[in-house]
Structure formats: C-alpha cells, structure tokens
Amino acid sequence: MKKTLILSTLALSLTAAAPANAFLSSLFGSDEEANTEQVTASNPLVGMLTDNLGISADQAAGGAGALLAMAGNGLSSSENSELNSMIPGLESLTGAIPGGLGSMISNMDSVKTAFSALGLDPALIAQFTPLITQYLTSQDASSGLLDSLTSLWK
Hints:
This protein has 154 residues and is mainly alpha-helical. The chain has helices spanning 2-28, 31-42, 44-53, 57-74, 77-86, 90-95, 108-117, 125-138, 143-152.
C-alpha cells in the first residue's frame, strides 16, 4: 500500500509539473529544442533537400520527417533498423513535423497534411522522395529497403 501511495504521488506530481514545464519551454525555449535545431541544420539529408528544392531547413526536416515517419509504419523491422542507421538524427527529423502530427502519420494523405502545415505544396512530395532515395543510395542502402520505400511512397 505504501509503495502504491508513493508511486501515485510521484505520478501525480510529474503530471502536474508537465504543463508548467511545457509552458516555460514555449516562452523561453529549451535546450532540447536548440539541440534539435542544431542536429536538423547539420543533417546531410536536410542539406541535400534545401540545396535542391530551395526550401528552409525546417521545411526540409519536417517534410523528410513526415515521409520517413510514414515509411517507419510500413517497413519490416529489419528495414526500419537499416533506415534508422542510415539517417543521422532521424528522431530530430520526425520531431520537426509541426503540430504534433508526427504520431498521426500513417498514409500519404497525412503526409500531405504535414506538408501543408509546413507551408509546402504537397506536390513537392514527388520531388522529396527521389532525393531521399538518392541520399539512401549514397549511404549504401539495400535494394530491399529502397524498393520498399519506393512502393510505400507511390
């Protein structure tokens, strides 16, 4: 009983503190937010997308993150592991999807919604996908992974 009471009290105090921490972070920013921005800006895939498409680093990261989040839901576990090992800072890319949409991306319609939220025309998806596969090819991605991504992103 004592253990349950302690755990309940701890859970309640953490839950109560979360909104205050989120509020303060939104006002003053956070170290985690700054670190994510640094990782995103230095990501070679983001650089490739910004150079080729003339978009901001935030848009490149969010767009790639949306496509990769969708892919993560459709790939096998071994392909997912391979993808995670090939893209540095993959979590920062999926974290760049605006408005908490990252957890809701499951199909191409949700990717289009994320692109729109980023201020990108969803038609740009057709330019993102070959660049991402080109990047993965340069990282020696397996043909199985590349074929699966191509199929998912049709």
